[in-house]
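Researcher: Here's the sequence for the chain we discussed earlier.
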Amino acid sequence: MFWVIPIMAGLIALAGLVLDGGDALAAHQHATDLAQQAARAAADALPQPGLRGALPGDVTPQASAATLAARRILDTADVTGTVDIAGDTVTVTVTVHQATQILSLVGIGDLTSTATATATALHGTTSGDQS
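Model: Thanks. This is the structure I predict for it:
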């Protein structure tokens, strides 16, 4: 009869891995979605006149509007993150914290997930008649 306790402990640990592991995967997907949304919003917010150089190296973006657009998305979702702008490329890194439900019983109270996404503002045309 003493085998019931180790088996129950094992089943609870397995349930913790399944439940909290699923939550960790969902948190990572959420972080990825937010990073992609913030990067796209920031790239869209780059001022157009600064993006109209003849070559990508000629681009001179003004980062304040782009950073504000990305921050607005991160603040709305109540997550932390960084926004880096280099030329016409915006990179956003998001960190999401997910509280555990069962693994907190063994001292793991929080799982952290980080995701990074990059978006590039298009300049000029990519196809069509150039005349």
